[in-house]
Amino acid sequence: MLEEQQSTTTSTPTVDRKHRYFIGKDYSNAYKKDFGNLEDYSTDCIDRKSIPRMPWHDEALVVFGQTARDAARHFIQRWNIHKYEKYPKNDFYPFLLPKSYDDVEDLAVENWSDFLESEPFRVNAQCVRSVGPWSVKTKSVESSIHNTYIQMIDAAKHYIYIENQFFITIAQDSVVRNQLADVLFRRIERAYKNDEKFRIYIVLPLLPGFDNMKAVQAVLYFIMRSIIKGDNSLFKRLEKAGKLILFS
What are the extents of the domains in the chain? Predict the structure, then answer.
């Protein structure tokens, strides 16, 4: 998309001032025009006769403590590597350093009521992420999201519930190389051998994005290959193993 000079943006000073490009993205400038008339929540902004309703909605929360600091450090790492690779000599984008915190500071926040409707509560939380040499220049790959999936699926005793925008996991595939399909297959096989009543719920949207996006077709292709299409799909592998599985 081509944006003219008079539009207000926050682009880098080194960008050509005559033309600005937003490749592959819809242009949205919250500084110029943000969401409006939020109190009029019943007014539709899309044509319900041609665009299906997506079965999700956004929720917001605020987190304090060590987990929030982990998220901040992750952002700083990603920011600094982009700064290093794209604008190493541009002082408009500084390198960031994480701050030093005392755990007591998180407990001494006095203005809860300014932005929270109720008192906060304590939870044990852990950040998980997926990074590697391509994203933060680490020497090794950190795949704590993937590892957590595998550990929780393997340890499940009664059921597994997965709700996600995408479900792409294909065994013995050269492109998709995560192990979720394998661990799901092994857990179903174990339940069958032990005569366990075990259920797996996988909840996916009708479309993993807006239907006018070409990328949706590619995503649906891999989702179908993961679940039911092809010899390496989860259903086909269970069928080959002779397992009696009830699908609903």
Answer: 1-26+48-127, 144-248
